[in-house]
Specification:
With about 210 residues, this protein is an alpha/beta fold. The chain has ten helices and five strands; from the N terminus they run βαβαβαβαβαααααα.
Length: about 210
């Protein structure tokens, strides 16, 4: 039996996932968590085979939690769940140790297949993502500017490009406005840009914002 932990801050999403997995004979939802700290606590106290981890829970990002889970539990299998399209976070998730990346619009059969594959220690990627990963292996391809950013810088960059103010970003990430301003300065330097308008235009062209 594959024991799954559902980590998502929306009760209705957890309920929906639980209902889907209830129809399987080899997968059981053994626990739930609504925040990053709850997720880490659940994993430290109980044995799970697969964690379904929401990428955008309050406070620390899902990628932060993913990295800590992998440091503390190298053998734990993690599938990232997200409302964001694959091109925005999938590659980063896989590089940080996730076994796969699923959008919340995925059909139930895809979710079940991904869990079974992850539990066996294999990676789950869609055909579109597999093609992107293959292209990324091309040594002659130029690395996109946003790939030079850390995960947190990338998160802040996307929020800036979405039109959010430093105050709004700070509140959402539980950080100070000064810290967000520091991130913005680093982002502009790394991406060789002068202002938010340039960031926004770049993000739109790259499909990094909805």
């Amino acid at each position: 039996m594959i024991k799954v932990l559902i980590a998502d801050d929306h009760p209705i999403v957890r309920q929906g996932l639980r209902q889907v997995l209830k129809e399987t004979s080899d997968i059981v939802v053994a626990g739930e968590a609504g925040t990053g700290p709850e997720t880490l606590d659940e994993v430290s106290r109980n044995d799970y085979d697969v964690v379904l981890l929401d990428i955008s829970m309050p406070g620390r990002s899902g990628l932060d939690i993913l990295r800590q889970l992998k440091i503390e539990n190298p053998d734990l299998h993690v599938l990232i769940l997200s409302t964001y399209p694959e091109e925005q976070y999938a590659v980063r998730s896989l590089k940080d140790g996730a076994e796969g990346y699923l959008t919340k619009a995925s059909i139930p059969d895809e979710l079940v297949a991904a869990i079974r594959k992850a539990a066996s220690g294999r990676k789950y990627v869609s055909s579109a993502l597999a093609e992107k990963l293959a292209l990324d292996l091309n040594v002659n391809s130029q690395k996109p500017l946003h790939e030079t950013l850390s995960d947190r810088e990338y998160q802040v960059m996307r929020m800036i490009a979405s039109g959010k103010t430093a105050k709004e970003i700070a509140a959402e990430l539980s950080l100070s406005v000064k810290t967000i301003s520091t991130y913005r300065t680093r982002i502009l330097e790394k991406m060789q840009m002068k202002n938010n308008a340039e960031l926004t235009l770049y993000a739109i062209k790259q499909g990094l914002v909805n």
